[in-house]
Amino acid sequence: MKKTRRSIAIALAILATLALGSFTAQAAPIEISYWSVFTGADGATMQGMVDAFNASQSEVYVNHTPMTADDLYQKIPLAVQSGSDVPDVTIVHIERIPNFVEQELIWPIDTLLENGILKENYIPSAWDRTDIDGDHYGVPLDVHSYVTYYNKDLFDQYDLNGYIEDGYITFDEVKEIGDKAKAAGWTDHILGLDWLRAQVLSYYAQLGDGHLTIDGDAPAFNNDEMAQVYQTMKDLHDGGYTTIKGDDSMQLFYSGNLLIWPEGIWMKAGALEAGVNIGMLPSICYSPETCKNWTSSHNFVQFADDNRTEEEDIAVAKFINYMGENSLVWARDGGQVPAHVSINDIPEFKDMMQSFLADPERGDELAIYYYKYWGLFDTAISRNGWEPVFGTMTIEDNLKAAEQEVIDAIAAQ
Q1: Hey, which residues does 36 pair with through a beta bridge?
Q2: Which of 366, 358, 147, 357 is nearest to 264 (CA)?
Q3: Range of 272's domain?
Q4: Are residue 398 and residue 273 in the same domain, yes or no?
């Protein structure tokens, strides 16, 4: 009888254990909402990475909502103010973070730092930019820079490779390249004038500290260094070394009618699809020792939300760590430079032309700008485009007008 009762007790215990195990295994994962600014081909790449994370484990499930940057930056303040539907984690451009801090829309990532997010795992120049007043606000997914593409076939044809043996092209060498190519029969364009803001800021950072403000509020970019950048480009333009007003640098490069094309690393796939045999170098520089590339960074951040639980924060940390440790696809398919330093240990990444941007020894070449009124600056500096270089207005008038526009816009807020 005792044996029978004991057997029954053991059987019941086994059943209870199995039932508990079954319940545990079937427990719903913690769901976190993730908003990003990736809507094109990079959006598909990002969704694939999210799907891979969700499939890799059963504790966390990420709901990814991609939207345009403009939509996201409009929706976030409304969500935070209403206290509803605030995403648990969001991708934003690093330049936007100081303004979010100023508006008290964003929280420091203290809980994430307590749950496995480590500073030493990230490119310092990207990580350090979101240290603000003693708190830390962002985790960089990547860095994406303005670089210099060149047509390798044309450089071979016109014997120009000697100018890039050191891995850089200087402004003086642009002229030498142009003169040599023209002497050998080249009749098309030498250097492209493309996205003004990124191109100008790459060069501006080489002439000093590249400040847009001194006191953190008032704009301070109407100065001798910024004027020198415009004058450098005007001299090249007037000497016949650049594209001219009305030219489409991208199409000229794609069609083999442009030797050197300053553009972002995100344009690599398009150039390859166009059939151009491309090489990639850092930005044109005054000297290799001062070379800087205008750089931005997509950052994971957490906007203010009193309803977010500690469990959700822990889940976010797990997700971010996974994305950093498994970011090769972001480099390969997204054309980006992952900010997680583990990427430098992957041979496939080292063979990619943009890998020099992740080199820890060249981190000071990444010019990441910091200004809480970045959006106002961007609008103002872009308004007149390359007109001062084309000669339709003076450099002095352009910079004065751009700075005054920022001053007026700040006062109107």
Answers
A1: 66
A2: 147
A3: 144-295+369-412
A4: yes
Q: What is the CA 205 to chain-centroid distance, rounded?
A: 17
The answer to whether residues 44 and 85 belong to one domain is yes
pLDDT digits (tens, 9 = 90+) for 283-334: 999 999 999 999 999 999 999 999 999 999 999 999 999 999 999 999 998 8
Tell how strand 366-368 and strand 60-66 pair up. Answer: unpaired
The torsion angles phi and psi of 6, rounded to 5 degrees, stand at: -65, -40
Q: What is the pLDDT of residues 75-113, one digit of tens each?
A: 999 999 999 999 999 999 999 999 999 999 999 999 999
- Counting every residue, how long is the chain? 413
Same domain, 85 and 120: yes
Report the C-alpha gap between 147 and 164 in whole angstroms: 14
Q: What is the helix (H) or strand (E) element at residue 136, kind and residue range?
A: strand 135-136
Please give the model's pTM, rounded to 2 decimal places. 0.87
Residues 321 and 258 in one domain: no
3-state helix, strand, coil in the chain (%, to 5): 55, 20, 30
Comparing CA positions, the residue from 74, 54, 73, 78 lying closest to residue 64 is 54
- Pull the structure tokens for residue 119: 């500073």
